[in-house]
């Protein structure tokens, strides 16, 4: 176990440099195959248990297509976990790996002194065209500086399932299109530099988000 953790730590050191370079250059950073199939599946199992246990709180109410009978559709459904809950050891492991990468980044992102974070927010877009309208996570300086999202969706096909994350980096005409792929980790600045939206999903779409504060 010790040897495994020291291998992980050295890998996170390399990853952290990549994260710092990408964030500094683009404000966005994608890391694929972050934890590997086995761990990714363990985390997904725990998330599906949360979902079936009904702890995912109904998401925000959004106006549905006027034509539809029920005027409102539910957007994302969420629950907060700190990883100490029973049967969430793998979610806890994920959070500690996110922290391990961020800890290595913290002293390289000199403009920030990242030293704390939110709990982990487990979000599910239940399909049925649910989406998240264009927004900024932290528009008014609430302290959150980096959004970190881990995706859990196997065999996700955007053409069939939608659910694309679009980020519109401020002051650029480029749009970042990020598929919510299984075992993918995403970092981006939480402030006005990164307005973003989640396009309509046609299949259940799971993600775990942590926000880092400075
Ligand atoms: O899932 C994604 O790809 C991006 N997701 C988001 O931007 C996002 N941003 N802010 C939230 C606040 C409360 C509940 C869910 C969310 C949420 O999914
Ligand atoms: Fe967001």
Entry keywords:
214 residues; alpha+beta; seven-stranded antiparallel beta sheet; 13 strands; 29% helix; 30% strand; binds N-(4-oxo-1,4-dihydrocinnoline-3-carbonyl)glycine; binds fe (ii) ion
Secondary-structure map with pairings?
Elements: H1 2-26, E1 28-31, H2 37-52, E2 61-63, E3 72-74, E4 77-81, H3 89-106, E5 116-117, E6 120-125, E7 130-135, E8 144-151, H4 158-161, E9 165-167, E10 176-178, E11 184-189, E12 196-201, E13 205-213
Antiparallel strand pairs: 1-11, 2-3, 4-6, 5-13, 6-13, 7-12, 8-11, 8-13, 9-10, 9-12
The protein binds N-(4-oxo-1,4-dihydrocinnoline-3-carbonyl)glycine (KU1) and fe (ii) ion (FE2).
Concise account of the structure shown:
About 30% of the residues lie in helices and about 30% in strands. With about 210 residues, the protein is an alpha+beta fold.
Hetero compounds: N-(4-oxo-1,4-dihydrocinnoline-3-carbonyl)glycine, fe (ii) ion
Order of helices and strands: HEHEEEHEEEEHEEEEE
- State mean pLDDT (0 to 100 scale): 90
Identify low-pLDDT runs.
none
Terminal Cα span: 32 Å
Estimate what percentage of residues fall within beta strands.
Answer: 25-35%
- The backbone outline, from C-alpha atoms, is globular
What is the helix fraction of residues, given as a range? Answer: 25-40%
- SS content category: alpha+beta
Rg over CA atoms? 17 Å
The total of beta strands comes to: 13
**Largest pleated sheet:** 7 strands, antiparallel
The number of helical segments is 4
